[in-house]
Amino acid sequence: MKKELFGLSLIELQELLVAAGLKKFRAAQVYQWLYQKSVTAFDQMRNLSKADIAILEANFTLLPQQLKILREQVSQDDLTRKVLLEFPDGNSVETVLMRHDYGYSVCVSSQVGCDMGCAFCASGLSGCIRNLTAAEILAQVYIFNSMLVGEGKQVSRIVVMGSGEPMLNFDAVIGALQFLHRENTLYMSYRNMTISTCGIIPGIEKLTQLGLPINLAISLHAAEPELRTELMPVNKGFPFQDVIQAAEAYVGYTGRQVTYEYILIAGKNDSPVAAELLANHLRFKHASVNLIPANPVPEKGFERPSKKVVEAFLKVLQKHKINATVRREMGKDIDAACGQLRARFAQEQQD
Ligand code: SF4
């Protein structure tokens, strides 16, 4: 059976290639093609001999080459590209490429599905099927990099905010981020990486102990206990007040500002009173609030509030001197909310 090479360290790669009969220096060349030039096939590695390529193809596989793009959606403004990627075992996840003024970012998934059951999210509709490996997380970045490389561009930011709860797959997520930070891969700064959690406190604490300047985002979405539990059942085990405290420890240790994500759902959590509650909890914290007008999730019956309501909410936060912005709407015309594309695809397969 062929062995998978993608995501191995240089030393692991050297060992496998030497065992297959290749010279040791070939490993550094293959490594560079894979992780700096974002090539996804052995026969594109132009400084390898035909004989060496034949050995590689006979003995090894490369995950990005085996990924199937089941669906692809590009927003009308061409700034957002979302793909549904199928892994060799038949499981699929969503990955999104976004073009900003400052470069390209990729929003990756960390699990197939999710167990957290957030009421507004399509990713949790059928629970968590499995964790992704570090290589599968990396492959989501490199599949886009391989598309950009022809234009002389590459992904410069990663956000772990797709399907899954990253803190419940901590080692693989951190392994992937540390890999991207290496000088002989993308050499991506930790400051360009964001992990978004629904509030798994042990995960926040582990991240704090690592002491890396990774951006931490917390999905809050309500600052009233009952409503938060209704929207995010994780609140029962990890009440948001404790989550904010854990995030404060993160700020103290890393100096990084924490971002609180707040999806505004019409008639649920978008009133001025809800904004006052939120302000009470975040006042004087080294934090910013990212307000996200909800993407309608037809399966859940959630609607987006009007512009006026969003502005009124923002004003309350600003009155309390809380650094808050309304997220620029990217990819509104595609199934932009996490898990929607995968859920729709699954539904179509059943029909
Ligand atoms: S919002 Fe995130 S944590 Fe909640 S169910 Fe969806 S993927 Fe899971």
UniProtKB/TrEMBL annotation:
Catalytic activity reads: adenosine(2503) in 23S rRNA + 2 reduced [2Fe-2S]-[ferredoxin] + 2 S-adenosyl-L-methionine = 2-methyladenosine(2503) in 23S rRNA + 5'-deoxyadenosine + L-methionine + 2 oxidized [2Fe-2S]-[ferredoxin] + S-adenosyl-L-homocysteine; adenosine(37) in tRNA + 2 reduced [2Fe-2S]-[ferredoxin] + 2 S-adenosyl-L-methionine = 2-methyladenosine(37) in tRNA + 5'-deoxyadenosine + L-methionine + 2 oxidized [2Fe-2S]-[ferredoxin] + S-adenosyl-L-homocysteine
What is the species listed in this Swiss-Prot or TrEMBL entry? Phascolarctobacterium faecium
Indicate yes or no for the key word Hydrolase.
no
Q: Which domain of life is it from?
A: Bacteria
**Subcellular localization, as worded in the UniProt entry:** Cytoplasm
Question: PANTHER family per the record?
Answer: 23S RRNA METHYLTRANSFERASE, RADICAL SAM CORE DOMAIN-CONTAINING PROTEIN
Q: Quote the EC number.
A: 2.1.1.192
Protein name in the entry: Probable dual-specificity RNA methyltransferase RlmN
Say what the protein does.
Specifically methylates position 2 of adenine 2503 in 23S rRNA and position 2 of adenine 37 in tRNAs.
What gene makes this protein?
rlmN
CDD domains given for it? Answer: Radical_SAM
Does the entry feature the keyword Aminoacyl-tRNA synthetase, yes or no? Answer: no
Active site location? E94, C338
Q: Which residues bind [4Fe-4S] cluster?
A: C114, C118, C121
Instruction: Indicate the principal place this protein occupies in or around the cell.
Output: cytoplasm
**This protein's UniProt keywords:** 4Fe-4S, Cytoplasm, Disulfide bond, Iron, Iron-sulfur, Metal-binding, Methyltransferase, rRNA processing, S-adenosyl-L-methionine, Transferase, tRNA processing
Q: Which family does it belong to?
A: Belongs to the radical SAM superfamily. RlmN family.
Domain Radical SAM core, by residue range, is: 100-333
Q: What is the lineage of its organism?
A: Bacteria, Bacillati, Bacillota, Negativicutes, Acidaminococcales
Q: Which cofactor is recorded for it?
A: [4Fe-4S] cluster
Stored InterPro entries: Aldolase_TIM, Methyltransferase_A, RlmN_N, RNA_MTrfase_RlmN, rRNA_lsu_MTrfase_RlmN/Cfr, rSAM, rSAM_sf
